[in-house]
Amino acid sequence: MTRQVQPPEGIATANRKYTLPERTTNDPETSPQEHEHEHNHESMAERITRVTADLQDLRRFYNIEMSDTRYRRFHDYYESELESLETAPFETYDQQSKVDYVLLRNYLKRSLNQLGLDRTKDDRMARLLPFGHVIVRLCEARQRGGPVVGQKVAQDIQDIVKSISVVKEDIVRGRVCKQDIPREAAYRAYKTINRLQEHLREFFQFYKGYDPLFTWWAQVGYEKADAELGHLATLIQERLVAIKPGSAGDIIGEPIGRDGLLADLVAEMIPYPPEKLISIAENEDRWCVSEMKRASNELGYGDDWHAALEHVKTQYVEPGQQPQLVNDLLAEGIATAQNLVTVPPLAMETWRMFMLSPEAQKVSPFFLGGDDILVAYPTNTMDFESKLMTMRGNNRHFSRATVFHEMIPGHHLQFHMLARHKPYRRLFDTPFWIEGWALYWEFVLWDKRFFKRPEDRIGTLFWRMHRCARILFSLKFHLGEWTPQQCVDYLVEHVGHERATAEGEVRRSFAGDYTPLYQAGYMLGALQLCALRKEMVDSGKMEEKNFHDFVLWQNMMPIEVLRALLTGQEITRDFRSSWKFYEGHE
Question: What is the pLDDT of residues 172-231, one digit of tens each?
């Protein structure tokens, strides 16, 4: 039987079910009635602008993620805003304001749900951090610059050191092992300890020197605590996480399970369960393979499209020539896009190019874009294999579709418009709109036969297969069906990735910077926009250019809400997803 970690006196046990902490006398409090009265006069656009600013302030001040105070404050804020929103005069709103209401309500509910999920994740790692709340208490008090008693701080720090020692001993002696703490929870604890170490360092540096008694009492203990936090993080990394640097073994994520995916799909207004999305991805992949074989036959490789893909990968530019290739492709993309969507002159003028560092390319092995374009290409510091894989993964024909996706008419144009049309809606960031738009243009250009040569078709088909694979591997990972290694192997063996770029792709997907549905949002968002285009443009209800401009001018939102705006659909307070947008290939 595994012994429970017993912290020293004064350190509360952390392996407990979370209950909402009691409100302290220092906590801000606003009654629902006061809140309702204060915000009744706001338009929906003004309300969203205020909520955005409120959250920026709250995130800046309550910046220690595992803090109970932070959890309580955000929980109260989301609850109070939802209560206030229920009193808004929805029936008097025009269509745009009703959309804003639905978007804000959806955002607040999703944020409240995510807060609870994060708390559950914190509970799973809490056994490794029984000292955490003491560090949080010290650091949160420091933000106000209040007076401290050096001797009391020294005692708190001594308790922290003792508690760390108990956890370390239990790990070393096997009383806490992988069977007790899931790898994902251990990795979360490892990252949290590193952040707590930074917060404690900030706390000490604030008082050090100017408060002589503080320094006299606390310095030696702080230095010991800082070292012990570092040792504990390393021990967790080695014994419980078991990271193997430089391989797929160092890719760690936190699967959210089927229920978590369903909750996210509701928030993104996607009416299909994960299993249906996997089926959609498999169907789209079959179409891609069929088109791959067609192009492969044109190149003389028969149905062996993997061989044709290997040929395309050898068509890369020499070192130093990649920026010129990007410039040439971007000029071609702009010339094509101007007939299909409004491209303001300033958007064409104000983009810049940067090179991704070798370290950044481990996570982002291809182009990135937005305000600027970030180019992936080898540097002199990479070894031979890394150079070759990066050049092959960023060849001429792969790059052809990528530049349009990242710049114009893709992300650069998108970001230019986001800042100028209903910018308050940027709060409702969703990959189905952001990434769906950029991939949608690859679909549009394919239909307009922009990719005429078989090499170019293979290049863009590779990316389309890649987006199918993103749905498959990300959903299967979060359903607990695939490991990160299986995700990497699928990208290499089926899609045709270089192993280094596949590992970078999977590492990027699960590192914690992206939401669980982010990678699925590319293909699914593009398919939604294609279905909406068919409904509005192919039917003759809208001109093509007007359709594209309308999408950009509405700013970010789930595509189904955008559809409601376009079609004049009745919008209710509890608007929910019902649009079955996928019909498959004819």
Answer: 988 887 778 888 899 999 999 999 999 999 999 999 988 889 999 999 999 999 999 999
Which residues make beta-bridge pairs with 369?
Answer: 373
pLDDT tens digits, 95-111: 999 999 999 999 999 99
Q: Residue type at 199? A: H
Contacts 24+ apart (CB under 8 A), 35-39: 35/80, 35/81, 35/83, 35/84, 36/83, 36/84, 36/87, 39/84
Contact call for residues 503 and 485 (beta carbons, < 8 A) = no
Q: What is the CA radius of gyration of the chain?
A: 26
**Number of residues that this document lists for the chain:** 586
Instruction: Please determine, for residue 49, whether its predicted confidence score (pLDDT) is greater than 60.
Output: yes
What is the rounded CA–CA span in Å between residue 532 and residue 530? 5
Question: Lowest-confidence range among 259-268, 373-382, 540-549, 566-575?
Answer: 373-382
What is the three-state SS of 234-292? HHHHHHHHCCCCCCHHHCCCCCCHHHHHHHHHHHCCCCCCHHHHHHHHHHHHHHHHHHH
Both tokens assigned to 255:
């699967």
Sign of the dihedral through C-alpha 510, 512, 518, 522: negative
Q: How far is CA 85 from the centre of its chain?
A: 27
